[in-house]
């Protein structure tokens, strides 16, 4: 009953905190009953202990594969010593989910640092204390200091609200401390009088907000409201038009030290500054698609942040004064205009660019305006305006003078030493505002336009002669190395490496049908086999498994389960600008088809040894076995034809791709060549969506190999009727005729020549 009452109280608190419904509401009782019923329901799934054991077994096996037998032995021995409770699988499952590459991050030496927690010493008893120091003195009870919870508390209770908090000098246990009394010692009461003037001013402004009467306020209040408005914050004196972000004055304000006309003029001038700053903030919030405009936005944002920090320093002068200042909103207006003058000029430039006609407008019109303003600001020596505008101008010029993709490709594709790289970066450094300012300080009479032209001309002269040629050569070299690598990884250019990967995979699927899809082990297997091919970077190979419950997929044929395996190869960034993708989905699908063909052939190989065990002469074989042997021969012929088609297609299209890439001019031309190659490869290997019926028919032929392999042992023992084999033979003939006719129709419609050759090869067998 106590447990049920506890659940009821906790449920009521949970419902109240989530829904906010009071306990006397009519819905509260029904919600509580439903929640309690769900909490008491024990039909929720628990962690499967057998699955946890299998995962630990797989982890131990993984340690052995990665040559970390020490970790595997240590883990296995400690699992045996672990106490078995009903919560043990839950704890172990949590540890497995938290595990991250344990074979790299774990050290066997760390186990030696694990020590059992020391047993705390036993607390002394009163008998031991009295035995050491007997309480026999006469005056031992004459001076007693009573603690917070002594027996005297039962007689009289002190009123803590009327007394000063004190701290007990007696050592008490944690459970006997007066936490409320101790907390009072650390509470600091804020001085409410510090904000009284601000609160009174706010109340007065809000009270007369809708009135037409003249409101008298202090200059400090006007300064506070003006600086808040300049930060873009809502105020009582100023209002904001949501359409154009224009700042207006909502109240008639005056002060005791200035006339209403002066106050109004100052407020109008401050509102105009706020309007200009808000227009810049609105432009900064717009998303720019061009790179040079993004750089200009970033530079303007830095200048705006610097201006906001100047306003903050102005606020700190009056909020935390270190010296005596004369509070004057006129002086504040003068300082605000001086600080915001460059930003106001930038707002005019941005507005001029935005108001220009869209038709025929140059995308670099804003840079032209910034360039003209920088030259104008430099002539009279306006350093503040020149510093802001010139910095924004040079920030916009830096994308243009990095040679775009050519510079990026050259930097990533070229194999240089650290010294050469540092030297090239130093030689090709883009002139920035600091270098321009340094030149102007040493030679102040040099006009900005001449200095900028001379600097950029010298810089371009060191960059142009070598960049274009090296980019074309290096990019082509990177593309050819990528094409060579994907041929080995995906298309089985080296059959021995493909077999080295496929055979352990097929054996693992047979031995561990529910846990074979460990992507870490499969990635390690692919890197140690396919990754050893010439020109292949093993670290770029990764094996992924598509989402889905393995328990559902284990009921499917093994050939269909191979569709879940996705082999990928990381493409370098420069090459991605040609392939237009980080991965190669067509090559991944081609590898899946090739792996399914290899698995079908793998299933039909053991029957050869069974045939050798039989007596010589096919006439002595049973009728069903004779039909199975004939079907096996035709299936092997079909698999060999399909494998030859894949190899021929890969070699032919790969050679054509290399020739076309070498003759392509520029990155865009290379991208078109790759896109055409990807389309031809997808069509030739029957991976296009329009060829799905033929692709499914071939998948049915591959599943027929698996069905024959499963029925072979029964046929050897005479436990399978010949009619079953006859049905398989009929399915083979029908599917072969459909595939042959489909390929013939595709070739007539302008398909690839390789498909026509495959159709002719299959049609010769049908005929």
UniProtKB/TrEMBL annotation:
GO terms for molecular function: gamma-tubulin binding; microtubule minus-end binding. It holds the Pfam family GCP_C_terminal. One of its GO terms (cellular component) is spindle pole. It is found in: Cytoplasm, Cytoskeleton, Microtubule organizing center. Keywords: Cytoplasm, Cytoskeleton, Microtubule. Belongs to the TUBGCP family. This is Spindle pole body component.
């Amino acid at each position: 009953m106590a447990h049920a009452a506890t659940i009821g109280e906790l449920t009521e608190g949970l419902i109240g905190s989530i829904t906010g419904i009071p306990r006397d509401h009519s819905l509260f009782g029904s919600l509580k009953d439903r929640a309690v019923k769900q909490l008491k329901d024990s039909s929720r799934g628990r962690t499967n202990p057998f699955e946890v054991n299998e995962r630990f077994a797989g982890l131990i096996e993984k340690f052995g594969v990665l040559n970390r037998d020490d970790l595997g032995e240590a883990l296995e021995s400690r699992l045996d010593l672990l106490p078995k409770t009903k919560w043990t699988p839950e704890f172990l499952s949590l540890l497995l989910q938290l595990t991250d590459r344990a074979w790299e991050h774990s050290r066997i030496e760390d186990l030696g640092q694990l020590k059992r927690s020391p047993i705390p010493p036993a607390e002394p008893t009163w008998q031991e204390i009295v035995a050491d120091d007997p309480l026999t003195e006469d005056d031992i009870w004459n001076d007693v200091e009573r603690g917070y919870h002594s027996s005297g508390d039962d007689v009289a209770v002190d009123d803590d609200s009327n007394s000063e908090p004190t701290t007990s000098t007696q050592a008490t246990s944690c459970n006997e401390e007066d936490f409320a009394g101790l907390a009072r010692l650390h509470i600091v009461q804020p001085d409410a009088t510090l904000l009284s003037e601000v609160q009174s001013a706010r109340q007065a402004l809000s009270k007369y907000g809708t009135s037409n009467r003249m409101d008298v306020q202090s200059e400090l209040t006007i300064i506070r409201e003006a600086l808040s408005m300049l930060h873009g914050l809502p105020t009582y004196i100023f209002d904001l038009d949501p359409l154009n972000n224009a700042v207006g004055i909502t109240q008639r304000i005056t002060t005791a030290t200035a006339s209403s006309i002066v106050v109004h003029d100052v407020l109008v001038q401050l509102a105009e500054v706020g309007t200009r700053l808000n227009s810049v903030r609105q432009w900064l919030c717009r998303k720019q698609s061009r790179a040079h405009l993004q750089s200009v936005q970033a530079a303007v944002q830095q200048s705006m942040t610097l201006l906001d920090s100047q306003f903050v320093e102005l606020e700190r002068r009056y909020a935390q004064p270190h010296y005596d200042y004369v509070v004057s909103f006129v002086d504040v207006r003068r300082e605000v205009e001086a600080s915001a003058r460059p930003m106001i000029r930038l707002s005019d430039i941005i507005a001029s660019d935005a108001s220009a006609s869209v038709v025929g407008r140059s995308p670099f019109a804003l840079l032209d305006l910034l360039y003209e303003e920088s030259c104008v600001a430099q002539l009279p020596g306006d350093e503040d305006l020149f510093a802001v505008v010139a910095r924004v101008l040079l920030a916009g010029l830096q994308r243009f003078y990095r040679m775009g993709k050519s510079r990026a490709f050259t930097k990533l594709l070229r194999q240089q030493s650290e010294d050469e790289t540092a030297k090239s970066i130093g030689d090709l450094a883009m002139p920035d505002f600091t270098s321009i300012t340094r030149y102007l300080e040493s030679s102040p009479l040099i006009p900005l336009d001449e200095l900028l032209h001379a600097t950029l001309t010298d810089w371009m002269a060191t960059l142009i002669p070598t960049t274009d040629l090296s980019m074309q050569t290096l990019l082509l070299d990177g593309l050819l190395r990528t094409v060579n690598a994907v041929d080995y990884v995906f298309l089985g250019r080296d059959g021995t490496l493909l077999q080295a990967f496929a055979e352990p995979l097929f054996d693992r699927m047979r031995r561990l049908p529910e846990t074979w899809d460990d992507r870490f082990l499969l990635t390690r297997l692919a890197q140690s086999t396919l990754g050893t091919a010439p020109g292949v970077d093993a670290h770029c190979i990764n094996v992924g498994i598509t989402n889905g419950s393995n328990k559902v997929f284990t009921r499917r044929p093994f050939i269909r389960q191979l569709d879940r395996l996705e082999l990928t190869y990381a493409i370098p960034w420069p090459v991605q600008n040609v392939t237009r993708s980080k991965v190669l989905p067509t090559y991944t699908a081609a590898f899946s088809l090739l792996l399914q063909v290899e698995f079908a052939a793998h299933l039909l190989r053991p029957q050869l040894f069974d045939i050798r065990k039989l007596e010589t002469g096919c006439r002595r074989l049973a009728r069903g076995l004779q039909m199975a042997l004939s079907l096996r021969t035709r299936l092997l012929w079909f698999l060999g034809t399909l494998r030859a088609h894949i190899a021929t297609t890969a070699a032919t299209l790969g050679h054509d791709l290399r020739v076309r890439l070498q003759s392509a001019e520029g990155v865009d031309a290379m991208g078109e060549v790759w896109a055409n190659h990807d389309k031809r490869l997808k069509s030739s290997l029957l991976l296009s969506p329009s060829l799905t019926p033929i692709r499914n028919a071939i998948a049915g032929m591959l599943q027929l190999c698996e069905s024959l392999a499963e029925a072979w042992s029964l046929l050897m023992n005479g436990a399978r009727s010949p009619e079953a084999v006859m049905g398989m033979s009929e399915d083979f003939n029908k599917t072969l005729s459909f595939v042959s006719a489909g390929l013939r129709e595709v070739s007539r419609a302008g398909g690839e020549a390789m498909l026509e050759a495959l159709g002719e090869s299959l049609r010769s067998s049908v005929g």
